[in-house]
Design brief:
single chain; alpha/beta; TIM Barrel; four-stranded mixed beta sheet; 17 strands
């Protein structure tokens, strides 16, 4: 039996700060938090550090290299919100047996009409993107995603202007049919919506979560109340909204010595770039909207929209740490922000074994120097990462 104790760390258990307690792990599972250690167990000296649940990035577009990089930053689970099945199906099998990669859940292909988003971003990429432009096509589309093993359904409500290129928009009757069909198949529905109008349409259709925050206009009290009343959770993806509004918020990440050794140069260059398709002042709309949503009791999750090259301003793993800083900037406390990337994400994405440091949970763990419950910048000071109790090799973290 593989057994060890992480001793002396301050512990954030996914909900609150416990103070310095020992965490016991055996065979990839947390067996005790506090209490006497078992004789003979390996002891990991964690004094001066903080132990967190493995982080969960609630909005990515993943592949094997991305998951490998994410784990070096303590992101132990990525929630992929659109990918091609020919990539994701074998990748899911690989992550099940490779503990040097972050784990992944996926929506597979997102629902969009013919020629709709993200076709304008896929020029030169392989793979045929299934679409549905009529109500009659919806049952087949959803059935195909279920057959691919999709964990939830993604729907695209995007006219393209926020990203600089107009595209066909999903009709409301098709959206309503998709929500009904997905729910009938036990799938949550997550909506891509970057505008206030698209957000209204998504909430009116009965989606479960919003995978972006609108950034084209200031919030209204009506839309905040509507989202709260509907019980919809929100993944703001402030990292990509900063890129869209030309903030350059990720340039600091790209220059950070805690980031640079873990990220290939081409990704560092992409991380430092921006979309800049909307005015800079629009980012203040997003920050204010996050604050208003949180004050209204809406669950805000941490997600980055980290994707492949060609989507400037994000990089897997590193960007989640930037996202946490932006959520604090928007008004969440450090504890609330850490919860958004751990317990809250696990709850909304039906991952009961993750996101908390409690007996019986998976030993997906992140040990960082300092105290991110006081200074969110400390999350990047990674000392150790465990996925299912297996420590990430130093060589992997530096590759």
């Amino acid at each position: 039996m593989s057994e060890f104790v992480i001793a002396g760390a301050q512990v954030f258990n996914g909900e609150r700060r416990l103070g310095p307690v020992d965490v016991h792990v055996a065979d990839g599972v947390i067996t005790a938090v506090g209490g006497p250690g078992r004789s003979g167990a390996e002891v990991v000296d964690a004094r001066g550090a903080t132990l967190l649940p493995g982080l969960i990035d609630a909005h990515t577009h993943s592949d094997e290299a991305a998951l490998r990089q994410a784990l070096t930053f303590g992101v132990t689970t990525e929630l992929d919100l659109t990918s091609m099945p020919e990539t994701m199906i074998p990748l899911r099998r690989t992550t099940a047996g490779s503990l040097d990669l972050a784990d992944v859940r996926s929506a597979s292909v997102g629902l969009t009409p013919e020629g709709g988003h993200p076709h304008q971003l896929r020029k030169g990429l392989d793979g045929v993107w299934p679409t549905a432009s009529s109500v009659a096509e919806v049952p087949g589309f959803v059935a195909d995603r279920v057959a691919e093993g999709a964990d939830y359904l993604k729907v695209m409500i995007e006219d393209g202007h926020v990203l600089g290129a107009r595209v066909p928009v999903l009709a409301q009757d098709v959206l309503l049919a998709a929500v009904r069909e997905a729910h009938a198949n036990g799938l949550k529905v997550l909506a891509h919506a970057l505008t206030l109008d698209a957000t209204r349409r998504a909430v009116d259709a009965g989606v479960d979560g919003l995978t972006h925050l609108f950034v084209d206009a200031p919030y209204t009290p009506q839309i905040i109340a509507r989202i709260a009343e509907a019980g919809v959770f929100v993944i703001p993806t402030l990292s990509v909204l900063a890129s869209i509004t030309g903030q350059g918020a990720s340039a600091e990440l790209a220059a950070d010595p805690r980031v640079r050794p873990k990220v290939p140069q081409v990704w560092l260059e992409s991380l430092a770039e921006t979309w800049h398709t909307l005015p800079q002042h629009n980012f203040q709309y997003a920050l204010a909207s996050v604050a208003a949503l949180h004050a209204a009791g809406v669950d805000v999750l941490a997600g980055t929209d980290a994707a492949h090259l060609g989507a400037p301003g994000t990089a897997h793993g590193a960007s989640l740490h930037g996202e946490l800083r932006l959520l604090v900037r928007a008004g969440l406390t450090p504890l609330q922000t850490l919860r958004a990337a751990t317990a809250l994400a696990a709850e909304h994405f039906d991952l009961p074994g993750r996101g908390r440091i409690e007996p019986g949970k998976r030993a997906d763990l992140l040990l960082v120097d300092g105290d991110p419950t006081a200074d969110m910048g400390d999350t990047l000071s990674v000392r150790a990462v465990w996925r299912q109790g297996v420590p990430l090799a130093v060589e992997s973290a530096r590759a």
